[in-house]
Specification:
The protein is an alpha+beta fold and 143 residues long. The protein contains 4 helices and 4 strands. Helix content is 40%, strand content 13%. A hairpin with a 4-residue loop joins strand 1 and strand 2. The longest helix is centred in the C-terminal third of the chain and has 30 residues. The radius of gyration is 21 Å and the shape is elongated.
Length: 143
């Protein structure tokens, strides 16, 4: 590229993070920190566009199970592609789900690792605890 993002790769696009209003104009430090960490307030809050949330949204749009067609507006120097307004509500619901799954995966991995590390001699197997509402495993010795 010779204009705009000089020497940037034009084939993959450029994702620009727009800060939430509360992150830079919050009334106190706690509000600004919560916004920076992606904690939302209210039932109608949109998903947080922090680094992880933005990466999840980009993957959903590009390579998700249901491709999302983008509407592009082209200027002489910039091309901006966005999700159409009619698709946004369905996409937002899926975005929340993917964020929840991405936050649950490390907890699941940690619980499984803790289960295997709980025995002195090793061996055996770890089985999902079906009564738990969070990732939990219990160790079972295999004869």
């Amino acid at each position: 590229m010779t204009t705009g993002f000089v020497n940037a790769y034009s084939s993959s696009g450029q994702i620009i993070r727009v800060l939430p209003l509360a992150e830079y104009a919050g009334t106190d430090e706690a509000t600004r920190t919560n916004a920076r960490w992606g904690k939302t307030v209210g039932d109608d809050a949109v998903p947080p566009a922090d680094e992880g949330g933005a990466r999840i949204l980009a993957d959903m749009v590009r390579e998700g199970m249901k491709p999302v067609p983008l509407e592009c507006k082209i200027d002489r120097q910039v091309q901006v592609c966005t999700v159409t307004q009619g698709q946004w509500s369905a996409l937002e619901a899926r975005w929340w789900r993917y964020i929840a799954e991405s936050r649950l995966e490390p907890l699941d991995h940690y619980a499984l690792r803790r289960c295997y590390d709980s025995t002195w001699l090793g061996g055996g197997t770890c089985i999902v605890d079906p009564k738990s509402d969070e990732p939990r495993y219990f160790h079972r010795n295999v004869p």
